[in-house]
Specification:
The chain has 20 helices and 30 strands. β17 and β18 (366-372) form a beta hairpin. By secondary structure, it is α/β, with parallel strands linked by helices. It has a 10-stranded mixed sheet, with helices on both faces. Strands 1-30-29-28-25-24 form a 6-stranded mixed sheet, with helices on both faces. It is globular and about 100 Å long. Helices cover 29% and strands 19% of the residues.
């Protein structure tokens, strides 16, 4: 009864499933799996694997480090001193990593754009808990991660401590989110890590370590992570990333010129100017060819047309001052002579030949040179650790770009330029691949904007997955006065407006039926589970009886079908948040099909004409199978029924469909144990996984 109200997956451990099945009397059905509602714990899976392979290293259920080293053939070092970085609270980091969460992600259609078609995702919520929720469905799926975390300047606000296992009310009171009367406090999560704090660096490290640790699990084997950082925590960040990713997987430190204007306030004018920032680059595992030479041409657009030939325009004049003075390069062409201080870029013979051949164009009285797309071709530049401004742009340019989209009342002092992120994305992803790029400190959503722009330039199919907590805007700040309640609201609005801007610019330039530019995004919000959770701190028999009474129906009041559906997808499905969902009804029972599609078609769930699907199970082989008797519909890999009543007729329908997994509410059997037992027997015979919630 204890697990009756939980949702998720209860894994059979390392062959235990087969052993149980072999020992079960013939003809007796195994009970349908009850699934818990907690996030996946990679450490628990690894521990079970070690128990199977190295049982000798466990003493009273705990791993003996010395015995593990001996089993691996390493000599024991009796010296307790070790090389590494330690800080106050490091041990707590691992406890936070191992703690699971029962929270879920709830869809927000009203805040989304093109929810049913887009494959871009924005999640509003604390990134530590979101990373835990994504451990199952996005493990080994992310091609690239880019984050721009707080630099720990003493003015940044970030969340600590990170605790999720205790009761929500206790946590809110202890963490200062609410006062004793239950009212929200001003500070809550948002506390500045002052340099006067005794654990100034430790607080930052304890915030970063669990997030980087969990993020590594989401990267593909050939995945890459980029982390922006300033001078303040650069050395500490390098140490913890070496520890998490392995120093052998360090690929480099990119230095880019973040600002070009000097800072002349405070003590800044009395010290060397900090004009550069850094990006650490690590790969998850060694793979040749992770990075590719940058294709200069792909970063350019050719907005003009001359007899069917696309071209771009650039200046053909140069400065004619100081050491650049060239009197022979100031001459008249077609009635135009460069003004004082300027000259032509080449000599008279070259310029006149270019003009004769149609490469010079006058616009508003100014000469420009035409660069034709078919002549420039694909120029390749190496990916350097020192990034020229042409490839990175500057923070000032990033802020101006955000001003152009949202106006100048967004409240951000520094903004990463889209050009920097575009260059990083271009370096390790391909336009044709549907790579997922994740940013779990998304801020104003520069990453999302950069990916949409890059896709529009190269007809790309990259997808973004952005996470941003709803950090409140200061009530007396410009952003709040402009109508933004939280930083997450700013990011979402930027994506909406950037998408509209790109679409307007691309009108008439895209063949949408062949290269559908994805300018939408699904919005999800981190919230409590839609299902009641069994309290572990029951103290009396009366409390136990109350718990049991509550769990007759474990669905929380007000939980919507779509909310429950996405929670099941996250915790009890092999699919991710972009799975194709088709709602069906049979004999008065509503249910959902979850399916992938044949890669040769662009049809989505609910569309006509798709007969094949791509069935993917972890890293198993990909296969195709045709549905019989349901031409014109997508075949279902999984079926989820959230109706409150299930009939034998509906069960027969599910058996006919032959999904790989069938999930339903336990209460739907209405205490009909015979139907439930027969369903379990039939599902097992048909080799369909049967899960109840």
């Amino acid at each position: 009864m204890r697990n009756g109200g939980e949702i998720g997956i209860q894994q059979d451990q390392l062959g235990g499933k087969m052993a149980k099945r072999a020992s079960r009397p013939a003809g007796k059905a195994r009970k349908p799996d009850r699934v818990n509602g907690k996030s996946l714990s990679p450490q628990k899976e690894l521990s079970e694997l070690l128990k199977c392979r190295f049982p000798e290293v466990f003493v009273e259920g705990k791993i003996d480090g010395d015995k593990l080293r001996q089993s691996l053939g390493e000599e024991l070092d009796t010296n307790n001193e070790r090389y590494g970085l330690s800080w106050a609270g490091k041990a707590e980091c691992f406890r936070h990593i191992q703690e699971t969460t029962t929270a879920t992600l709830r869809p927000r259609r009203s805040e989304s754009v093109d929810f049913d078609k887009t494959e871009n995702i924005f999640i509003e919520g604390d990134n530590l808990e979101v990373l835990k929720i994504l451990q199952k469905t996005y493990q080994n799926k992310i091609k690239m991660i880019y984050i721009d975390p707080p630099y720990n300047t003493g003015n940044d606000s970030f969340i600590y401590p990170d605790r999720y296992k205790e009761e929500k009310e206790d946590y809110e009171l202890r963490a200062g989110i609410k006062d004793a009367e239950g009212l929200l406090t001003k500070d809550g999560f948002w506390r500045k890590n002052s340099k006067d704090a005794g654990h100034f660096h430790s607080n930052w490290l304890s915030m970063m370590y669990p997030r980087l640790f969990l993020a590594k699990n989401l990267l593909r084997e050939d995945g890459v992570i980029f982390v922006s950082i300033g001078d303040e925590e650069m050395s500490n960040l390098r140490c913890i990333m070496d520890e998490i990713f392995g120093e052998e997987n360090f690929l480099g430190m990119i230095t880019w010129k973040a600002r070009v204007k000097p800072v002349n306030i405070g003590d800044a004018k009395y010290r060397p100017q900090r004009e550069v920032e850094y990006v650490f680059v690590y790969q998850k595992e060694y793979h040749e060819g992770v990075f590719q030479r940058l294709i200069t041409g792909s970063m350019r657009t050719y907005p003009h047309d001359l007899n069917g030939r696309k071209y771009r325009l650039a200046t053909i004049l140069k400065s004619n001052r100081g050491a650049n003075i060239r009197s022979t390069m100031v001459f008249e062409l077609d009635g135009y002579t460069p003004p004082d201080g300027q000259r032509w870029q080449a000599g008279e013979d070259v310029i006149r030949q270019l003009h004769h051949d149609g490469y010079i164009e006058f616009r508003e009285g100014t000469p420009l040179i035409r660069y034709f797309e078919d002549e420039e071709g694909a120029e390749h530049d190496p990916f350097y650790c020192f990034m020229e401004v042409d490839w990175s742009s500057t923070s000032e340019a990033g802020k101006n770009q955000l001003n152009e989209i949202l106006g100048d009342r967004h409240g951000f002092d520094t903004v990463k330029p889209t050009r920097l992120v575009s260059t990083l994305v271009q370096s390790c992803t391909k336009s044709s691949a549907e790579d997922i790029i994740m940013d779990f400190f998304s801020g104003s959503c520069t990453t999302a904007h950069a990916i949409m722009s890059l896709n529009s330039e190269s007809s790309g199919n990259r997808k973004f997955l952005c996470v941003q907590i709803a950090e409140p805007c200061e009530p007396d700040g410009e952003a709040f006065k402009a109508g933004f309640s939280t930083v997450a609201d700013i990011g979402k609005e930027r994506i909406r407006r950037a998408g509209k801007k790109i679409k307007k610019e691309m009108e008439g330039n895209l063949t949408f039926d062949k290269n559908r530019l994805d300018l939408g995004f699904k919005v999800f919000r981190l919230e409590e589970s839609n299902f009641k959770q069994w309290r572990e701190n029951v103290r009396t028999g009366e409390e136990l009886k109350e718990q049991m009474r509550m769990f007759v129906d474990n669905v929380k009041k007000g939980a919507g079908s779509e909310d429950m559906l996405f929670e099941i997808i996250l915790k009890n499905s092999r699919f991710d948040l972009n799975v194709k969902i088709e709602k069906q009804s049979f004999a008065g029972v509503d249910y959902y099909r979850l399916a992938t599609e044949d890669p040769s078609t662009t049809l989505r769930a609910g569309s006509e004409g798709t007969e094949k699907i791509k069935a993917v199970s972890g890293n198993k082989r990909i296969h195709h199978e045709e549905k019989e008797g349901h031409e014109g519909k997508t075949n279902a890999n999984e079926i989820i029924c959230l109706d409150t009543k299930i009939t034998k007729k509906f069960v027969d329908k599910v058996l006919e469909e032959k999904p790989e997994r069938f999930t339903c509410l336990d209460i739907a059997f209405k205490n009909n144990d015979q139907l439930k037992t027969n369903t379990a027997l039939q599902m097992e015979s048909a080799k369909i996984e049967f899960k109840v919630i």
